[in-house]
Specification:
By secondary structure, the chain is α/β, with parallel strands linked by helices.
Length: 509
């Protein structure tokens, strides 16, 4: 009888709770609905739906954590999917095909390319289609794995609390046992000598939405983004001049020998470079833009005329109105300070991606997001060696590297061996008519352990994965040299370079 009475009481309480939920109505103030969470607590709240954030959120949900992800952009994917990696690669692919048809078809015996034309509007539409397909795919993955997605600006309001200013109006307060900050970075728009207007003076975002191909394009900054977008418009017909403060292209971390050879290749394609040069002023003059420059070491000034100026001088960590200062989250310069588990000094708050130390790369953030999710769900301690994170410049040919450069090894006093193999000696590259570039393999002189691999090739970004596996698992150059690789493939050049490093000679080349 006592058990029966208990069941009846429990049932009554349950029904009363259901009626309360069903009768709930949002409070309204000044005609706007203001939504507040009804006490639901999440295991994980992720602020930011870029590569690190959405990957971490999905992984956490797959591991059984109740997860919510917040992003003010609306479509998920962050800079990468919306205005970065994906749209730029769509333009790089389309422009490469157009350039090959215009410049290379006749030599291959394919006639008629002299009459080839381009629909720039459709080219841009195809880029937008790719973006929408991928961002929509992320939302589909959120639904599949039951990740709640909120479109709005998330701000820390406590160690376990996030207030979301919703894009559609109102606010929602999220309570979570753990919070992952994955807000990424954004372009630097204001500099002492120039301010971006996204029309004549554009950032990488504006360069992805130009209405026509500019006759003259000046690119300020010869790093990864400047080279990629500069090469897009050079292929489409622009006269492109890259102004770079440093003596080498490719930005920080690129091997000097690779940078030198890549600049030679790009100059041969038609790009122009002003190295060791600083920009002192950018002035709009009616329908054009004047860019004032002078040597970095000092000297006579020079003025460049342009229809469009592309500013690619780096990115800044995005922490605007995030609430980190209010909670006393410790910083390491401009970066959020984290421990080996990516946890900040505030227990339960983690940070990943561009806002912490390490390379500002999407795949690095993805791995960090997954590692934090696994740590929270299983207790497995994260491990990610930033030295083993690859970098790629998606020009044509591409540049890819992983591990140390020769300059870094010399600075560290590490004795090393070097093997270099040219694609000009590779059967598949010769058959393809695409022989620019080489592979360079660096290993420890004493142990032969792989220390760095550097590649210039049309598909360098794909070939580098083999080197990543080798370096991650402590392989020797001899290990790569003895791997059986398919023939004929351009990947065999990696084996040839490893043979030179390990044995001093390669079978061919």
């Amino acid at each position: 009888e006592a058990l029966l009475l208990y069941c009846r009481v429990a049932c009554a309480i349950s029904m009363a709770s259901i009626r309360t939920v069903l009768s709930f109505r949002p409070q309204r103030s000044l005609g706007l609905a203001r939504f507040f969470s009804a006490g639901t607590e999440y295991d994980l709240c992720v602020i930011g739906a870029g590569p690190g954030g959405y990957t971490g959120a999905i992984k956490a949900a797959q591991l059984g954590l109740k997860t919510v992800c917040i992003d003010k952009r609306g479509p998920p994917g962050g800079t990468c999917l919306n205005v970065g990696c994906i749209p730029s690669k769509a333009l790089l692919q389309a422009s490469a095909l157009y350039h090959e048809a215009k410049k290379g078809f006749e030599a291959r015996g394919i006639q008629g390319s002299e009459n080839l034309s381009m629909d720039f509007g459709k080219l841009m539409d195809n880029k937008d289609t790719a973006v929408k397909k991928l961002t929509g795919g992320i939302e589909g993955l959120f639904k599949r794995d039951k990740v709640k997605y909120l479109k709005g600006h998330g701000k820390l309001t406590g160690p376990n609390s996030v207030t979301v200013t919703l894009n559609d109006g109102g606010e929602e307060t999220i309570k979570a046992k753990n919070i992952m900050l994955a807000t990424g970075s954004e372009i630097i728009e204001k500099l002492p000598f120039v301010e971006v207007d996204e029309q004549q003076i554009v950032s990488s975002t504006g360069a992805l939405t130009l209405k026509q191909v500019p006759e003259k394009l000046v690119v300020i900054g010869g790093g990864v983004i400047g080279l990629e977008l500069g090469s897009v418009y050079e292929r489409l017909g622009s006269h492109v001049t890259v102004v770079e403060f440093l003596p080498t292209i490719g930005g920080m971390g690129i091997d000097a020998e690779v940078a030198k050879d890549m600049q030679r290749i790009l100059k041969k394609q038609g790009m122009h470079f002003k190295m060791s040069t600083k920009v002192t002023a950018v002035e709009k003059t009616g329908g054009g833009v004047k860019v004032s420059t002078e040597p970095a070491a000092g000297g006579d000034s020079e003025v460049l005329d342009a229809d469009v100026v592309l500013v690619c001088v780096g990115r800044r960590e995005y922490r605007d109105n995030l609430g980190t200062e209010d909670l006393g989250i410790e910083m390491n310069g401009r970066k959020i300070k984290v421990d080996d588990c990516f946890q900040t000094n505030v227990k339960g708050i983690y940070a990943i991606g561009d806002i912490i130390d390490g390379p500002m790369l999407a795949h690095k953030a993805e791995d960090e997001g997954s590692l934090v999710a696994e740590y929270l769900a299983t207790g497995a301690k994260p491990h990610l060696d930033y030295n083993n994170v690859p970098s790629v410049v998606y020009t044509h040919p591409e540049v890819a590297w992983v591990g140390k450069t020769e300059e870094q090894l010399k600075a560290e006093g590490v004795e090393y061996k070097k093997g270099k193999f040219s694609f000009a000696a590779n059967g598949r590259a010769i058959a393809n008519g695409d022989t620019d570039g080489f592979v360079k393999v660096l290993s420890c002189k004493k142990t032969d352990k792989l220390l760095g691999v550097h590649i210039i090739n049309a598909i360098a970004g794909d070939i580098i994965s083999g080197a990543c596996i080798g370096i991650e698992y402590g392989a020797a150059s001899e290990d790569l040299a003895r791997v059986c690789m398919a023939h004929p493939t351009v990947s065999e050049v990696l084996k040839g370079a490893a043979q030179k490093t390990a044995f001093g000679k390669a079978v061919s080349g």
